Amino acid sequence: MKQQRFAEERAPEAGRTTATTHPISGETGTFARQPSPSGLYDADGNPVRLIVVEKTPTGTVRRLAPFAPRPGRMGYYEYISDARWAGIPLVHIAGGRNPETGRLVRAQGVVAIGQFAVGVVSIGQVSVGVLSIGQLTLGGLAAVGQLAAGTWAVGQLAVGVQAAVGMLAAGFRAVGLNTFTWG
Predict the structure, then answer these.
(1) Which strand (E) or helix (H) includes residue 16?
(2) Is the CA virtual torsion 21, 22, 28, 30 positive or negative?
(3) Is the dihedral of CA 7, 10, 13, 16 positive or negative?
(4) Are strands 59-64 and 76-81 parallel, antiparallel or unpaired?
(5) Are 176 and 169 in contact (CB under 8 A)?
(6) Where are the alpha helices (DSSP H) in the chain?
(7) pLDDT tens digits, residue range 85-107?
(8) What's the whole-model pTM score?
(9) Partner residues linked to 100 by β-bridges
């Protein structure tokens, strides 16, 4: 904590110029220092990155740095595959809050896994896809979850255009404790 406070005291403010050596050209002079996205600086006044980016043979992993503060004990992890179909990653796994932007991350891919997932096959707390699994799901073909809606739906509250199975089910064919049918 003492080291972090010292780093913050020495941190240059956004737009402030400092005498330094340019990292690319090597010339010495006065250059504008970029603010740290995390708001943290090391003892030399350099910005601290809170995200570690690792390149793997199949894709890119972005995760929270081991030393990064974890407010509310929420972590951050994201995997994006290099393989793509129609410009969309084949696999995207995302969870937590991005420490640089402060936003919850959303998984978008052919196979999407995360708190918020959008994809052909999506698995998440809130998910939208052709085949969707989660707590609150919207599936074009099939949906499985606590609140599920789709052509075929299975869940505690299930609404299916063709068929629904659940405690409270509504659809052309409905099976459950309380059912509502149409057609």
Answers:
(1) none
(2) negative
(3) negative
(4) antiparallel
(5) yes
(6) 2-10
(7) 999 999 999 988 887 777 889 99
(8) 0.69
(9) none
Token pair, residue 106, equals: 């959303």
Between the alpha carbon of residue 156 and those of residues 29, 125, 126, 170, the distances in Å are: 66, 15, 15, 11
Distance CA 162, CA 59 (A): 38
What whole-number distance in Å separates Cα of residue 67 and Cα of residue 82?
Answer: 28
pLDDT digits (tens, 9 = 90+) for 123-152: 999 999 999 999 999 999 999 999 999 999
**Which regions of 88-105 does DSSP assign to beta strands (E)?**
88-89, 91-96
The pair of structure tokens assigned to 91 is: 């696999």
Contacts of 71 (CB under 8 A, 6+ apart): none
Cα separation, 81 vs 19, whole angstroms: 41
